[in-house]
Specification:
By secondary structure, the protein is of the alpha/beta class. It has one domain. It is 59% helix and 12% strand. The protein has a five-stranded parallel beta sheet, sandwiched between helices. About 4% of the residues have low confidence.
Amino acid sequence: MKRRVTFCFIFCSLTILAHAQTRLRIIATVHNPTKYITQDSLIKVLEAFKPDIILMEWDTSLIDDKGNIKLTKQQMANSLEGQTAQFYIQQHPQTAIRGFDIDYRNKFYKEHNTFSNEIKMGNLIDSMYKKNLLNDTTWFIVNALYSANQILNNFSHMKLKDINSALCMQAASLRQTLLYKRETEIIHYNQYLKSWYSFAKENADFWELRNKIMTKNILKYIKMYPRKKIAVMVGFYHKYALIDYLKPLSINKKFVLADYTDN
């Protein structure tokens, strides 16, 4: 009997302590709705968690620390996360909304023609791959990247619980390593690709910088909102990096990383 009382006391104490800390939930999502990942499915997760603040994967130059948004309602509605946040805030006006991405993200991508250059560089690599102009090691790395791309594409058509799974995070981590580290090395040393090295390296560095700044901004809001619930909605390619950065800090920073199914 005494042991049972002691166990109950310890369990209750730990439960109270956990809920006295800031609770952080990273919700991986897609930017455009699919058959299974919709506004309704995201709202269901938010309603279960009941966040005090929602952090959005927005360029922080578009929203300040007081929640003043420089986006129109139409611009917010251009992404699944924006649609979801807009609807949730209408139902729960006391919930704060903030951005947490790097503050010059959109400007960087525009000035560097990132997306069009990614396509051009990718087309060149794909052409060399199909024409067997890559050596054995390089060919297999590119082949592995294509396989990882297909795996993540498959995940994007699954349910919200699937893209928030450990398996999906592992696949995303592998894909980003192949893309931003191994493929960048290939570009550096291949005489037909090395003209693209500066772009590839800069692109890889910016991806890593974004993840670090996202983590820094999340920690800032954890400090600003002690003992609150914070939901982070982010593209599912980023979740593994945020978890990797945040998990070791969770004890010292006085917050709990809530599992996807925790409330």
